[in-house]
Each structure stands twice: as C-alpha cells, then as structure tokens.
Design a protein that fits this description.
349 residues; two-stranded antiparallel ribbon; 9 strands; TIM Barrel
Length: 349
C-alpha cells in the first residue's frame, strides 16, 4: 500500500481502487457542532480570522466522516479586505463590500496583503498538526474574476453589471485582475508553506462568458497564478474549478496548468472522460440539491458517477458546496458508499 495519501495519488494521475472523497463546504453550515461554534462569535469574519476556532471547524467533518481531504475554513472574500476594501456579512443576505479602492492603492497593498491573512496560515498549521497523515489538507482562494465581481458590485448578484464592466472598461478590469492575480498567488504560497498540500482556485461565477472573454479573464489569470506559485518554489497540486462554464471547461483543462479540474453538476460523462484522457484528474459533480434530497435518486446518481469516472483519476465531490440544511445522514450515506466506512456518532448525539 502506498504511503502517499489517496487524494494526492489521484491528483498525480493514478486510477485507484476507489476514488478519494471530500465535499466543498463540508466544514461548516450543515453540522450542529459548527452552528454551536458560530453562535459564540460576533460575525462570520471573526470566525474566519480565529485560528483556534477555524481549525476546529475544519476538523469537525473529519471526525464524523471518512473524508480523504480537509479544506481549510475561510472565505473567498478575505483578499479584498486585505487589499483595503471593506467587507462584511449581512445576516441572511450574504457578503457586502464597500467602495472599491483605487487600483493604485490596491497595487500598493499587495505586498502587505498576505501578512494580513497570516491567521489563515496559522489555521492550516494547526489542522495539519492534528490531521492524520493519510488525509490531505486543502487550501484555497477565490479566483480573480469571481472575486472581482463582488468587488465591483458590492455584493453577490446575477453579475450582469460585472460582465458589462468587462466590455465597457476592459483596461480597468484587466488592471484589477492583475492585482488579484498577484495577491492571490502570494496568499496561496503562504498557505502551502503553512501546511496546505493541495491548492484550489474557486471560479464560482464562470458562467455566461463568451469564449474570448473567458480566455482573457479566467484562463489567463488562473494560468498566471499557477505560474507565480511555481516560481516561488511551491510544487503542490492545483485543482481549478470554473463552475458553470459549460463547453469551455475542456479548453480550460487543456490550457491551465492545474492537475485536476472540478466539474459542476451539468458535466457529462463524456466530458469528464475526455479530460481524464488528456492527462488530468477530475473532481465532482454530484448535485448538492440531490445530496440534500436524499433517497433512491441520490443512491442511483452516486452509483452512476462511480461507474462512469472510476476508470481514470477521479475525486468524488459535489458540483457545488454542501447546503446548510443538508441532513447529516445523507452525507454519511454517500461517504460510506464511496469509502466503505460508516460515520462516527459524536458524544453529544
């Protein structure tokens, strides 16, 4: 048996006896033990910046389920705050951002931005110290275009204003993306040095982009981030997630130097197989709504995904993050089907 963790073996291109499994947003909202911690802190960002509590939240699902990977508890909007833009979360409504600083001010803030995020590095170090050696620690960042949509619009939205900005002000958007590329690369280097064994780029809002725009604001920035991280001497594998990009996922897989491509819910069996055949691992694409619904349809879809993609390097995951009201027993059922290991009952239960 290889001593290399299962998740890292899949990212290295191995076809395994069973795929590794982890879920996006597994650290957090669906678990009662998370909600107990969340009730103790004044706001969401305070939890993100508290290494002791953030490490505990990261480890909570690892104690319950036989997940092969733990993803650090943080948020994709920490970089805008580190660059000088006000960020806060409205209860029940999500993120809000203040006025966009000037490009010059943000460019001047890039070098110091990583120091402002040092607590995330401490969280990673704490988790790595507790996590079993056969389980992989994942760091992440929001990808530049997705982060820019929030920075430009001041909140989550349909992103039409940000897409219009890409056409109306291409030079200004490119300048903002360049700042985000540089700050994100520095942030990910810090995460790897702090214990992250995999780095993931979340391009959560890659949908509805024309091919040439997608090339410019998704493929280009992702490529530059990976290149900058590699230039800093970091060789951990990357997972890229261009969610919602449809047919453009294959050009993404061919052009961006990531080791795996995360697929969203709409990905077909054939698309995944072609990416595998091109030499990259795939991850995904179970519908998070189906995970919440449970029942025979969930069982059937899990079986279908295992059958269609287990012939190549594959990581079992969702097509988006765990929903807050997902029953814990549904998560446990899927993890047990993939790993053969039942969930552990917690003392409080």
């Amino acid at each position: 048996m290889s001593e290399t963790p299962r998740l890292l073996r899949a990212l290295a291109g191995e076809t395994l006896d069973r795929p590794p499994i982890w879920f996006m947003r597994q650290a957090g909202r669906s678990l009662p033990e998370y909600r107990a911690i969340r009730a103790r802190v004044p706001d969401f960002l305070s939890l993100c910046f508290n290494p002791e509590l953030a490490a505990e939240v990261t480890l909570q699902p690892m104690r319950r389920f036989a997940m092969d990977g733990a993803i650090v508890f943080a948020d994709i909007l920490l970089i805008p705050q580190a660059l000088g833009q006000e960020v806060w979360f409205e209860a029940g409504e999500g993120p809000r951002l203040g006025e966009l600083p000037s490009i010059e001010a943000m460019r001047d803030a890039v070098e110091g931005s990583t120091a402002k995020l040092a607590s995330i590095g401490e969280t990673l170090t704490r988790v790595r110290a507790e996590l079993e050696p056969d389980r992989t620690l994942i760091g992440f960042a929001g990808a530049p275009w997705t982060v820019a949509t929030y920075m430009l619009e001041g909140r989550g939205s349909q992103r039409e204003a940000a897409r219009a900005y890409a056409y109306d002000h291409p030079d200004e958007l490119d300048a903002l993306l360049d700042v985000l590329v540089d700050s994100t690369a520095r942030y990910l280097v810090m995460q790897a040095k702090s214990g992250a064994q995999v780095l993931k780029l979340f391009e959560s809002w890659a949908e509805s982009l024309a091919e040439d725009v997608f090339e410019r604001i998704v493929i280009g920035p992702h490529t530059r981030i990976v290149e900058q991280v590699r230039a800093a001497g970091i060789d951990v594998p990357f997972i890229g997630f261009p969610r919602g990009c449809g047919a453009l996922v294959e050009p993404y897989a061919a052009k961006v130097p990531v080791q795996a491509v995360a697929l969203d819910t709409q990905a077909t069996a054939a698309v995944g197989k072609r990416i595998q055949a091109g030499g990259k691992a795939i991850q995904g694409a179970l519908d998070n709504l189906l995970l919440r619904a449970g029942g025979p349809a969930l069982d059937a879809r899990v079986e279908a995904l295992l059958e269609q993609w287990s012939g190549g390097p594959y990581i079992f995951n969702l097509g988006h993050g765990v929903l807050p009201d997902t029953p814990v027993e549904h998560i446990a059922r899927v993890v047990e089907r993939v790993t053969g290991k039942p969930a552990k009952a917690l003392a409080a239960e």
